[in-house]
Amino acid sequence: MLFHCRFLLFLSGMKKRHEQKLVIISLGLFFIFNVPLIFMFNHLGSIFGFPILYFAIFFIWLLSIVATYFILKRYYE
Amino acid sequence: MSNLVLVIIILCYLAFLFGIAFLADRKSKSKWVNNPYVYTLSLGVYCTAWTYYGSVGIAANDGLNFLPIYLGPVIALPLWIVIMRKIIRISKQNKISSIADFISLRYGNNRFLGALITIVCVIGIVPYIALQLKAISETFEIMTVQSSRQSTHILSDSTFYIAILLAVFATFFGTQKTDASENHRGIIASVAVESILKLFFFLIIGVYVTFYIYDGTGDIFSQMSKRENFETLVSFNGLEDGFNWLFMIMLSFTAIFLLPRQFQVAVVENTREKHLKKAIWLFPLYLLLFNVFVIFVAWGGTLTFDDTTNAEYFALILPLVNGHNFLALLVFLGGFSAVISMVVISTLALSTMVSNNLVIPYGFLDKFLTGPLEKNDFYIKTIRRVAISLIIVAAYLFYVTFSVELSLYSIGLISFVIIAQLAPSFFIGLYWNRGAAKGAILGIIGGFSVTFYTIILPLISQIYTGSETFVNEGPFGINMLKPYSLFGIDFLSAPAHAFFWSLFVNMFIYFSVSLSFKGNYRERNYAEVVVNSQNFKDLQDGTLVWKGEAYVADIRNMLVKFLGIARTERALQLFFKKYDIPPDTQMADARLINFSEKLLTGSIGGASAKILIASVVKEEEISLVEVLKILEESKSTMASNKALTQKSLALAKLSDQLKEMNETLIKKDQQKDEFLDTVSHELKTPVTGIRAATELLIEEADDMPAPVKKQFLENILSDSDRLSRLINHILDFEKLSTGRAELNIKRQDFNETLNTVLRSIRQIASNHQITIKRLNIESIEIAYDEDRMLQVLTNLLSNAIKFCDNENGLITVDYNLTIDYLKVYIFNNGNPIPAEDIDFIFDKFYQSKNQNTVKPIGSGLGLAISKQIILKHNGKIWAKNDKNQGVTFGFQIPFV
Amino acid sequence: MKRKILIVDDEPNIVMSLEYAFKKNDFEVYIARDGNEAIQIIQDIIPDIVLLDVMMPNVDGFQTLAYIKGQHDLKATKVVFLSAKNKTTDIEKGLAQGAEKYLTKPFSVKKIVGEINELFD
Question: B641 to chain A: which residues are within 8 Å by CB?
């Protein structure tokens, strides 16, 4: 019976495949927030009063939050 | 605002936080204290005064550079699902209480490594705490508009008193339990509240500056864009900036794992692993909200004052100059909250490290072993309390001595770079099992030396010599060794430069040393356990390979010294129960050694625990190969255990079935016994009558009057009849129930059969003043065995007579035809059958307590035989109490 | 004075033989067909001895014995079981509850009378 309970513990959390989705998000963030990719947004000008670079960073930031939220909500048991 | 009023407000606010902590400690099991939101908010301890005030200062002066400090964590958080979960699992299993404990565990509970990490952390964090005190002092000054900071006497400096209060707070709520790996719910709850307040107040000031003082984000942007140098604030200036940016992101990435306070809230204070599910997306959101208004506050201030020297405190000054004192007070309290949570958690984490990884393993072990038991607990707590006070005092002294020269931002980054020295041994050690203690130690020392040279030494030399020659020309004029541009790499900012070089050296040493020495078996064992934690987590206490001799009694004595008798006994009992070991076992095995080490780790740290346990056991050397082989075996044991579990489940099912069968057999056996018992009793009764009467007739033949004689003879006759009837019934019943009876089935008129029975039974009925009524006299042709049907009807009618009402006995007989069945009902107006009897009345020898005649006319087998007969006809028999008075017995036989 | 005996049994044939035998031996004989009747009669006559069957409808022998043992004025009344149940557990139970003897059916009338007389020697 002891063994049985431990197996249940083992099952909690997420499947490897879905965990890896989060790892990919992390990697993606690292690349897009760094040279050279970040230079894509290195322009003057503003969106909603935010400088373009700030807006891009905040927007990607927000997107990553939404993505992780949905992945965790769906796949974390 | 007057000095006194502000002090009173601060005191009230502190009292409020004390109250929250106190309540949360009292209700530490409540779901208000243990939920993913509290966990996420407690991670907000990352945002200190540096975030609250410092970010605005950088945004105003250097532009983008405040952001990487938050982008690192934002990149790191999704990875937590893999990394942090692993760390939390390992830490919970091993009762880890600090980052020093964690790293030294990975390297074989290495005492020196733990101490080294502690020292590095203290050096890194004390200035950081000083920076928080500085923020309090400066904001206090701004709020009260007095120049109190330059006060000549410590006792007139309010910052000093606030520092003392914080120390009291950390001491009171942080050292209630000896086991530092246990949760401090009170402190965490107050940190969560502070995290809400600081974010909320910062958002308020952001909205206030952006939309109240100015006309929205667009307004601020268009006004700012007219200023010169605006470009440098909103964009990268070439690739060099990009590199600085990259290193800053990496720096903050390591910080979110390695800062002692972050480790404390994320790992040690984690109550449930699944809280990560919320934190992973919610904490980046928290950080995002904290950063959205930074540039607007910074630029609003810049536009208002046209001067950025005081930019760090724009959030405070802006409402003040506009006469919104209350708003300024809120901002002040927000910043104050950021300070309190950082200082309290940091000192708590550091004090645990200082006591468990430095003071106890190096100075107090002997004292603990020889001293009286009751004192140890007190000593451990006292060490931590003293450590908390000393850390805060040190921070205060640092602030008084150095802080005039340094900004929030620079001290913060120096701290980060120092703490980042733990990164190689921490991150690589998590996934590379060859990483060795020597490599970790030398790597940290090397990296720290580089940090010292490239960022600390220049500051010190500047402060003491007042000149910049060391920075500008290098030591002894050697250009290649200029601290801010080693070997000509001159395009990086000082912290990025220091980070790059120190980690480069650190990792190089770590790898090369780890690879150039053969590993120690004990160390490698721990490494395997951490690196492959996935494989070992089910082994629990079996993870450490250990050979040697140890006595349970010795280990018990050792545990008692630190845990007390009660806790020790409870823990050992649990242990013995869990592994099914007899509690009087004398020799300890590896599991007990491991288990005891873990128990002690929470109180005195892993290194000390290992030393203490080693002192009472006699360990044999094992070769590294052997360790690896045994671990490999344990892994495969795990796999076969899985298969075994499945098998044992199947076996359990089988044995359940067997048990069930056995039970039915026992029941059947009991029923047989009862049957024999009842049969013999029933047989004995008429025999007794015959025996007694016969004896009297013989003995008293002369004196007995003739009528008495006749009566006795008649008794003998009736008893003999009863006896033979009984024997016939028993044989009949056995024949029917074993299926040996043949039915003689013919089509005939049921009405006729019923009449035959009634003719013989009416006499008996009228003797008992019972009326028998028929409701149906139709002829019905149906196939059945007539003799058997007579038997059934006789039995049911005699039964009805037996249970009829004593005075106005009434029996009604009815039958009808449905499509498939002939249904027969025999009703009597006697008492209902008790509910507990109704299921059993067709069982053999079942005699109700309710019958009105003294003895049953029949044998006790009548209803049982009837049931067998009806079943033989493929029919059904039943008894049912009427709603009013009376009982109906009924049966049906198929109309075929 | 004649000794009073109460015979409690639901088998009329058996009762008849016992009644005859005890009357012959100078007992004053009373009859009850079950425990209920027995309890009523006992209160009126305070018998010296009760000869008690075990298996009876309504109130059985053990219950009747328990009643007798509970009454203060029945202290002198002796109880003897007479039952077809002859398993040791039954016998032990009867004696444990305070019966003087436990006699089994079928029986010799002479022997029963002898056993009862023995109680008064």
Answer: 3
